[in-house]
Automatic annotation (TrEMBL):
One of its GO terms (cellular component) is cytoplasm. Keywords: Chaperone, Cytoplasm. GO terms for molecular function: ATP binding; metal ion binding; protein folding chaperone; protein-folding chaperone binding; unfolded protein binding. Belongs to the GroES chaperonin family. Heptamer of 7 subunits arranged in a ring. Interacts with the chaperonin GroEL. The gene is groES. Together with the chaperonin GroEL, plays an essential role in assisting protein folding. The GroEL-GroES system forms a nano-cage that allows encapsulation of the non-native substrate proteins and provides a physical environment optimized to promote and accelerate protein folding. GroES binds to the apical surface of the GroEL ring, thereby capping the opening of the GroEL channel. It comes from Leptonema illini DSM 21528. This is Co-chaperonin GroES. PANTHER family: 10 KDA HEAT SHOCK PROTEIN, CO-CHAPERONIN GROES. The keyword Cytoplasm applies. PROSITE patterns: CHAPERONINS_CPN10.
Amino acid sequence: MNIKPLADRVVISPLDSAEEKVGSIYIPDSAKEKPQEGEIVAVGPGRTEDGKVVPMSVKVGDRVLYGKYAGTEIKKDGKDYLIVRESDVLAVIG
């Protein structure tokens, strides 16, 4: 992957949720909620405040939770990614 985020943005690879089946009822993709957990695959240099670059507090490989409707969805090489601002990352897991 060769996506390089700018400023305080990160690229997240959303974790795939397993197919859900309740009893004998299959839940189609259109009825599933969007994933809110993923792994950071690229990080921008950080935001600029008063002429100084503020470094990012997340790094590549971190598993994170992000807002349900945050960011911009893109598809690269057949894989889905999400580009969000660092402020849209809610928490780092483990």
